[in-house]
Amino acid sequence: MPQIATKTDCPDADVLAKYVSGSLVEAHADGLFSHIESCEACQHTVDEMARRADSLVSAMRRPVVAPSAQDSQELNRLIDVVKQARPTNTPQLTSEGKIGPVPLDQFIACLSKSGLSSAEQISSWVQTHSPDSSLNFANALAWHVSIRSYTRKAILVSRR
User: Fold this and answer.
1) d(C-alpha 140, C-alpha 10), whole Å
2) If 49 and its partner were Cys, which of 20, 30, 84, 120 is the partner (CB 3.0–4.6 Å)?
3) Are residues 31 and 5 in contact, defined by beta-carbon separation less than 8 angstroms?
4) What percent of the chain has pLDDT over 90?
């Protein structure tokens, strides 16, 4: 006949939850198993925890239901609303799928607004380099701004 354990001998709910989930260290699980076999209160608690865990697992295993035609129509309507709400100054893709060229002054203004570099710093850099219409100039300017930003972040981090 199993011994009846007193409530003070029972492990707390966290230990029982680890036992149910299988995450309890094996050395502790063996001793706990012996206790659970002899303690009706812990048996009940473990059974209840296992039942709840099983319901969660079964809920996760339910198949995903395909959206109804009405849901699909509503989703398409919402997508159209978002597309129409797009700001007009957003760069648009060309028919080749590339973003079109941006004038240098617009590019400098955007960089300045981003906080990566001031307009004066960018203008100074542009004046010391010869702007051309090639991507090399734009890439060099972007590299310069990113290096300045990276250096600034590194200085801030080193001061902490």
Assistant:
1) 69
2) 20
3) no
4) 6
